[in-house]
Design goal:
Chain A is 0% helix and 52% strand. Chain A is mostly beta strands. By secondary structure, chain B is an all-beta fold.
Chain lengths: 107, 116
């Protein structure tokens, strides 16, 4: 199985701060990567797919980048509603595998 | 509006069986692959099963292969997960998810606890 290593495990950001979360794959996943936000007690919400495509309805402060084995999610200007858990998902090879998650808090 | 509503969770003893259901609405169910994904308490996410649009193809990771069976009824816009020989490590919240390239919509999840 492809291993997805996500970092950092937790992050505290100030209002308006720009933050990045990384996912590294154990092999090339050819941009088959999605990012999700999960708020406490809720189901995951898709933010980014195909590494850099913004899902409809997601604020433009979210962006994704990367290729090969290295990918990142950037939030340009932290907002209170951005608190939650974030994780990546690779869909290049079965079974799909998830990153370990990043807990993002407002400082 | 896409809606996925899971049901059928609960407390079950090790070695027993349980069947989860997912009622879909707001989209043409028969046009999409569907999946089950689980999240153990305070742990990460794990893909459990995928099923093709017609139900003729199914995919499982080794952790559940031979014990779990995914199925669907397109006439009822419903997805199912039959779980047999349950183990304590199967304790998790189980999510039904629509697959469109990636999983774009998820249900609210249903809790399954395997314990004696």
């Amino acid at each position: 199985d492809i291993q997805m290593t996500q970092s950092p495990a937790s992050l505290s950001a100030s209002l308006g701060e720009t933050i990045s979360i990384e996912c590294r794959a154990s092999e090339d996943i050819y941009s088959n990567l999605a990012w999700y936000q999960q708020k406490s007690g809720k189901s995951p919400q898709l933010l980014i797919y195909a590494a850099n495509r913004l899902q409809d309805g997601v604020p433009s402060r979210f962006s994704g980048s990367g290729s090969g084995t290295q990918y990142s999610l950037k939030i340009s200007g932290m907002q209170p509603e951005d608190e939650g858990d974030y994780f990546c998902l690779q869909g290049s090879k079965f079974p799909p595998t998830f990153g370990g998650g990043t807990k993002l808090e407002l400082k | 509006e896409v809606q996925l509503v899971e049901s059928g969770g609960g407390l079950v003893q090790p070695g027993r069986s349980l069947k989860l259901s997912c009622a879909a609405s707001g989209f043409t169910f028969s046009n999409y692959y569907m999946a089950w994904v689980r999240q153990a308490p305070k742990k990460g996410l794990e893909w459990v099963a995928t099923i093709s649009t017609s139900g003729s193809r199914t995919y499982y990771p080794d952790s559940v292969k031979g014990r779990f069976t995914i199925s669907r009824d397109n006439a009822k816009s419903s997805l199912y997960l039959q779980m047999n020989s349950l183990k304590s490590e199967d304790t998790a919240t189980y999510y039904c998810a629509r697959v469109d390239g990636t999983t774009d919509y998820w249900g609210q999840g249903v809790m399954v606890t395997v314990s004696s």
